[in-house]
Amino acid sequence: MENREEKTMETNRAELAGVILTEPFFSHKTYGESFYELTVGVERKSRCMDCVRVIVSERLLKGQRKLAGLYVSVLGQVRTYNEDVCGKSKLNIVVFSKEFVVCEESVKFCNAICLEGFLCKPPIRRTSPLGREICDIMLAVNRMYNKSDYIPCIAWGRNAAYAGDLCVGARLRIEGRLQSREYKKRDSQGNCTTHTAYEVSILKIDE
After folding, report:
1. Phi, psi (rounded to 5 degrees) for 31
2. Residue 79's beta-bridge partner residues?
3. How far apart are the C-alpha atoms of 56 and 76, rounded to whole Å?
4. Three-class SS string for 113-181?
5. In angstroms, rounded to a whole number, what is the distance separating the alpha carbons of residues 116 and 9?
6. 32, 101, 131, 180 - which has most CB atoms within 10 Å?
7. Residues 101, 54: contact at Cβ < 8 Å?
8. What is the pLDDT along the chain (207 residues), one digit of tens a residue?
9. Three-class SS state of 1
10. Among candidate residues 54, 60, 111, the one with its CA nearest the CA of residue 79
11. Which domains does the chain have, with CATH numbers?
């Protein structure tokens, strides 16, 4: 069991260090164990902040419930699941905690993601409003019990040019960070709402 878990950590590893932005709230229960969700803010060099959703078991919380404003180090995996929202399927992306250490003193911000998996959809190439080349890819990362996580990733510049020429089925190793970004969407009645997208921003990509 331990060896299998170690192997999955090699192909899907997330390291976060940041400030806890929300108090934990109940998420779900599996095999008698309760899990909670909270949001961790990780500051970028640009001073913008990525707000990462984190799932943590009651065992790792150790009875702690008042956590907002404290700092935390998290080691875990990127997990995805689909949720039905108003009749539409929404892909949710979280970090599932394997280790969760709370500290009152500030920490050095860290947002490091390492994934190894297979390209499961054709790459989508596009250009930003400022003319920079972008490529969106979907990476299928296997985990225990014959399950897979389907993780959206985004590449920029030279990485985008490289990713855009890849074929479905290519085995890839990706290093980057889990970013959050807000975007506005207008419905058929003309109402504009703000949504948050989560994806892995690629810093390094290899076959």
Report:
1. 50, 40
2. 94
3. 10
4. EEEEEEECCCCEEEECCCCCEEEEEEEEEEECCCEEEEEEEEEEHHHHHHHHCCCCCCEEEEEEEEEEE
5. 10
6. 180
7. no
8. 445 556 566 899 999 999 999 999 999 999 999 999 999 999 998 889 999 999 999 999 998 889 999 999 999 999 998 877 677 778 899 999 999 999 888 899 999 999 999 999 999 999 988 889 999 999 999 998 889 999 999 999 999 999 999 999 999 999 999 999 877 777 777 788 777 889 999 999 998
9. coil
10. 54
11. 2-111 (2.40.50.140), 114-206 (2.40.50.140)
Structure tokens at 24: 């934990």
Q: Residue with structure tokens 């997990």?
A: 79
As given in the structure block, the two tokens for residue 30 are 């599996």
**Owner of token pair 């976060």:** 16
Lookup: tokens for 67: 């956590």
